[in-house]
């Protein structure tokens, strides 16, 4: 119940007063601790850790709120988000959204797997939330160019019900029906989009 109240409190703070844009420079200053895992430029070099560069502002904000409220759990994030104020969260959202999106530096050496991934994306209607180019929008994640192993991890967590917070219900419904082959194909396809 406390977690729900914390998330609702943030939501109320967003809508109770006129929306205030986050301060990109303040977000950059606050992102120092984030860079250890998510990269100095928001592009993660750490396995199983998502890149944040180019993620939609509201997506970053909501994920931080879910971590802070405990509705999304991660031991590494827990101690970091407990110290964040709502203003910090707005600023971090603005900062990461301002960065150029991550790009997969590796050529696609498995185009057949990407073709299967593209088919899975169409069949599961991924673009209906994540947009046609998978750049995300508002509170929906950018998937294009994201780390492949992270996408596999996230899809498996949604499929098993292990991951909560955010669009959990929609993602659980979609991921639950994915075969292991489709998960790998989708992740490969999305990771090689720029």
Automatic annotation (TrEMBL):
Q: Which UniProt keywords apply?
A: Electron transport, Heme, Iron, Metal-binding, Periplasm, Signal, Transport
MF term (GO), any: electron transfer activity
UniProt PTM comment: Binds 2 heme c groups covalently per subunit.
Signal peptide span: 1-21
Q: Which GO terms describe its cellular component?
A: periplasmic space
Q: Which residues form the Cytochrome c domain?
A: 22-100, 112-194
Gene3D superfamilies, alphabetized = Cytochrome c-like domain
**Where is it located?**
Periplasm
Q: Where does heme c 2 bind?
A: 126, 129-130, 171
Mind telling me what this protein is named?
Cytochrome c553
